[in-house]
Amino acid sequence: MEKLLLLIAVVAAVASAKSIDIDSSQVQPFESIGIGWSQVQPIEDSDQYWARLPAEMQYLRKQEPDRRIVNGQEATPGQFPYQVFVNYQENGKSFNCGGSILNSNHILTAAHCVWRAESGIVIAGAHNRVIEEPTQQRISFAKVYYHADYNENTLVNDIAIIRLSGHITFNARVQAVRLPALGDNRQFAGLTGTVSGFGALCSGCSSPDVLRYVSNPIITNAECLEHWPNTMVQESSLCLSIAGERGACQGDSGGPLTVVDGENTLQVGVVSFGRRCVDGAPSVYARVTYYLGWILHVMSL
């Protein structure tokens, strides 16, 4: 019976993905790709991002930026071999998000990052994103898939997959992330979650050049709902405490939230949204176990 239910879940995923074809005339060989870093901004700094959020959250944009450091630390090179930097173009502007490697040509990220992307690249193997390190692999988007029920107002179903125009070469510094098993129904509350990315060190600050990470306890959805409405935190969501004023910030969207499970590191969340980085409310992630059927289906297309 359990196998039948899992099969139904995977079949249901067939009708739950939308996609964007990337204009091949805009795709460059990855060896030739350069980025004008002065023109790149986190998606959360854009007018489009805020236009999608409900009215009750608009006041947050007008608050004075919180100048506290979001208390993480610099990663060691290769510490997060599944982490990628995502740079993409939308309406003539350049934005950045995070992502994680699913296999040699699929990247897991957030729908709000790439659902309107016109072109883009992924950088794997980066420690310092602004220099061309010999460990880096830069590969263009070929196609973007995002959840068919993604809601741009509530950010529910905020999950997407980028198909690359070429294949990533795996090595000690570049590896696929491990996902929970299909049918894993653990909630992970109480475990320590680690989020990594190239996002800003405080709300309104510029993004660092190097990869950073922070760890905090995963909390229950009931605790999370004390801070967020149930239109935004649902069973498909996972929340991370911001104890110690630690958490994700602008530019980390789409990146991985992981836990240690025995000898393995599992990705359990995808960075979705928060309140001005660590401003009094837990950060919210797309729950990977909820979307496993969808992820496996998209990877099979």
UniProtKB/TrEMBL annotation:
What keywords tag this UniProt record? Disulfide bond, Hydrolase, Protease, Secreted, Serine protease, Signal
Give GO terms: molecular function aspect only.
serine-type endopeptidase activity
Task: List the subcellular locations.
Answer: Secreted
| Domain Peptidase S1, residue spans | 69-300
Signal sequence span is 1-17
Domain of life per record: Eukaryota
Q: An example Gene Ontology cellular component term from the record?
A: extracellular space
User: Could you tell me which CDD domains the record lists for this protein?
Assistant: Tryp_SPc
Q: Name one Pfam family in it.
A: Trypsin
- Which Gene Ontology BP terms does the record give? proteolysis
The reply to whether Signal figures as a keyword in the UniProt entry is yes
Please name the InterPro entries in this protein's record: Peptidase_S1_PA (IPR009003), Peptidase_S1_PA_chymotrypsin (IPR043504), Peptidase_S1A (IPR001314), Serine_Proteases_S1 (IPR050127), Trypsin_dom (IPR001254), TRYPSIN_HIS (IPR018114), TRYPSIN_SER (IPR033116)
The family line of this record is: Belongs to the peptidase S1 family. CLIP subfamily.
According to UniProt, the name of this protein is Trypsin-3
Species the sequence originates in: Culex quinquefasciatus (Southern house mosquito)
Source taxonomy: Eukaryota, Metazoa, Ecdysozoa, Arthropoda, Hexapoda
What gene name is given for the protein in this entry? 6049341
